[in-house]
Write a structure and sequence with these properties.
about 260 residues; alpha/beta; 11 strands; Sec1-like_dom2; Rossmann fold; Sec1-like; about 45% helix; two-stranded antiparallel ribbon; Sec1-like_sf
Length: about 260
């Protein structure tokens, strides 16, 4: 069973840029409780392409870099692509596509953008699952900014990794060896780092649509990652029902499962 991680991730990013429906299991419109339209609601367009602005943080910029060059972004209707934490001018007649990590700093910046009314609509895409407290902070912030009607959708994209080739990827985490082996690193720092590793691996599996057989050596960090990843998969599959089933449809339809070592 050949798995092309780069092609799968590129397809997922393309759907995001074309304002298509969320990946199965992603959240849509939790701030409004309804399905926002994907096209026909404004913003200049030509031949069915809605022109838009893409806003990303540093991590998601690294995710996009191997997948699409400027010409590829333009073909999908992207007129501007700008860093989230930069000074940006208002373009109130054009929709925006945010692609960022779900961090407190990013949430506050999105709220600030809504308060300034920078764009016509906001498609908010998070590279991994946004925690409930941050989602509530976002909801409260856009409500206070009187911008709820401008939030078209909020989506967990599960794209928290960088595809280097069809068969190689990186979780793009710095100082990994030091974090796991330095005796001066606190336990809570190691725990937080392992959680990021798990979320990155889960993103890879969700993008590929596979539930692997997990194998690891005992009694070290690898076992901690394996156990947490197994728990993450079980939780996702049990809580999200049919949505989770469809995101991992290729795995259930195949008699073969990849081995994650």
């Amino acid at each position: 069973m050949a798995l092309n991680v780069q092609e799968c991730q590129k397809n997922a990013v393309t759907k995001m840029l074309l304002l298509q429906v969320a990946p199965s299991g992603g959240m849509e419109d939790p701030l409004r409780g309804g399905g926002g339209g994907m096209s026909g609601w404004g913003g200049p367009s030509t031949e069915g392409v809605t022109w838009k602005i893409v806003i990303y943080d540093r991590f998601c910029q690294d995710v996009l870099a191997p997948l699409m060059k400027v010409g590829g972004l333009r073909r999908h209707g992207v007129t501007l692509h700008l860093p989230l934490h930069s000074e940006r001018s208002a373009v109130p007649e054009v929709p925006s596509v945010y692609f960022v990590e779900p961090t407190p700093q990013n949430i506050q910046r999105i709220i600030a953008d809504c308060q300034r009314n920078l764009y016509e609509r906001y498609h908010l895409n998070f590279s991994s699952s946004i925690p409930r407290p941050l989602l509530e902070t976002l909801a409260q912030g856009v409500l206070q900014a009187n911008s709820v009607h401008q939030i078209t959708r909020v989506v967990d994209r599960f794209l928290s990794f960088v595809s280097l080739s069809p068969s190689q990827f990186s979780l793009n985490l710095t100082n990994a060896y030091r974090t796991l082996h330095d005796a001066t690193i606190q336990d809570h720092e190691i725990e937080a780092f392992i959680d990021r590793v798990v979320e990155g691996l889960f993103s890879v599996l969700a993008t590929l649509g596979v539930v692997p057989v997990i194998r690891c050596p005992p009694n070290d960090a690898a076992e901690m990652v394996a156990r947490k990843l197994e728990a993450r998969l079980r939780e996702f599959l049990s809580q999200r029902g049919s949505s989770a089933s469809s995101i991992f449809a290729s795995s259930s339809a195949s008699l073969q499962r990849p081995v994650l070592i």
